Amino acid sequence: MGGTARGSIEHYTPLNDAAAFRDHFVAIVQFLNNHPNWTRVACQGAGAGVATSWTYSSGVNPPGERAWAVYRKSGSNVFQVLVQWSFALPINGYPGDPADHPSGYYVGIQAAYDTSGGTDIFNGGPSLVGSNASSSVDTSSNNTLRIRKDVLDSYTVINVTAGVSTSKTTIRNDLNAAFLSNTLPFSARVESNQLIIAAANGVVDGNIVDIDTIANGSTLNTPVGFADGATVNIDSGTDLKGVETNGSGFSGAVWVPDGGNLIVLPRANGAGGTFTSLKQAMAAVTNGGGPTRFQIVGDDDYLWFGQDQNNDGNYDRCLYVGAYTPAAGVSVTGSAICMVQSPGSPDLDSNIGSTANTSSTAEGGAAEAAGTTQCRAVRMMANTLVLQAVHQPNLQRATPSYDTMNIPVCIEDTQGTPTYGLLGFIDLVRIGFDLPTHDTNVGLTKAFFGGVLADWKWIPDWDGTTVPGSGTTPEGVQF
């Protein structure tokens, strides 16, 4: 766990205007586009094309207001994120759920994963849907699918399990294995007993789902109910966040389960969220103010965001989403992922995971180790007997220096059925006490962020060169 440290840091925007928050959003998107462990699943530019072409506000193709993008992390502890921005127009209600940013505006984030490890959880975008709604179908003589991603390609011939009563889940598994081995950008899933083929993670813009006719040998069309010779455009620049309902707009959940329980962060109202099926809540990555300084740091397993809302050296919100190391004896079902947000300095005194979804600085949560569908409130903890002014810096070292520690994360939730207990430890970002914001270690490979001096500080990775607080452009510095 861990890997190469990367970042997009020192983004400075001088005004509290639409350009500032658009640029924060573009910074996140470009960071994820360029990160080898993150793959774009879908995006909508609100009139500005696809994510790979989006520019900062001063460029030729800035994303429109309420643009959004979905990305999937590969490797261990797989999860996906949705990011979206707005300024004058409320995120609420468009273009589908989640659409509940704590303030209704600016830049929001949501994370999701399936406890089975399944990665086909994005529910938006055009897809090919079979009309047959039986859980099993007769494939004894109709088990061949001929499919391609481009009209210039030859059809790939896939034979699924043959039998008089073959379950749709077996067909799904056969198709996904074949898509993977043939490098086809498709993913099959079953919903309400209907077989669906849609864009998979990593789809190339402009691809299609094109199946051949029954007469040409694509016989699986018959039992599953695919329209004969159907073609669906899966260009990710026009994917929809949510499902179109009777032509009246986009609603419905962005995420769907893929073999296990669906976990969505941050926690919404109450245990599991008021929006039990839609999981609407988003956390605020940036939320007003100007001039603003914005940081993005991450390795192969985490993302960390910091916003100094007024560029005064006192960070107003910091958010970690990523892996934790389970505590001894804790067996986690699915990915060991948590989201913790604080108003600048790490908040070790309050629960994280709003019960009213009105706080813009304390959103987050984690699933219980058993991997139920509920996202529960959590609390960050630390050895505050050591991390206090009397013990910092540590005078017992030959050269006095400050102690840093990992961050224990405990479930502490009184809503619904109360539940408590140590989940594990955030090891990838550490905390310290009494360190000045924007200070660094000697090699500039770690930097310190938070609020006032006599308080705890976040310590994410840094680039080894840049002085924190020195950036002067919206584009920032990449490493």
Layout of strands and helices, then pairs:
Layout: E1 6-13, H1 18-34, E2 38-44, E3 68-73, E4 80-86, E5 106-114, E6 127-129, E7 136-137, E8 144-148, E9 156-159, E10 166-167, H2 168-181, E11 186-191, E12 194-199, E13 208-211, H3 221-224, E14 231-233, E15 243-244, E16 250-251, E17 262-265, E18 283-286, E19 292-298, E20 302-308, E21 317-323, E22 325-326, E23 337-342, E24 365-367, E25 375-376, E26 378-380, E27 405-413, E28 419-433, E29 449-450, E30 456-459, E31 477-478
Antiparallel strand pairs: 1-19, 1-31, 2-3, 3-4, 4-5, 5-17, 5-18, 6-12, 7-10, 8-9, 8-13, 11-12, 13-14, 15-16, 19-20, 20-21, 21-23, 22-28, 23-24, 24-25, 26-27, 27-28, 28-30, 29-30
What can you tell me about this protein's structure?
7% of the residues lie in helices and 32% in strands. By secondary structure, it is mainly beta. It folds into two domains: 341 residues, no CATH class; 107 residues, Immunoglobulin-like. The strands form seven sheets. An eight-stranded antiparallel sheet has the order 25-24-23-21-20-19-1-31, with helices on one face. Strands 2, 3, 4, 5, 17 and 18 form a six-stranded antiparallel sheet that branches. Strands 22, 26, 27, 28, 29 and 30 form a six-stranded antiparallel sheet that branches. A hairpin with a 6-residue loop joins strand 3 and strand 4. About 4% of the residues have low confidence.
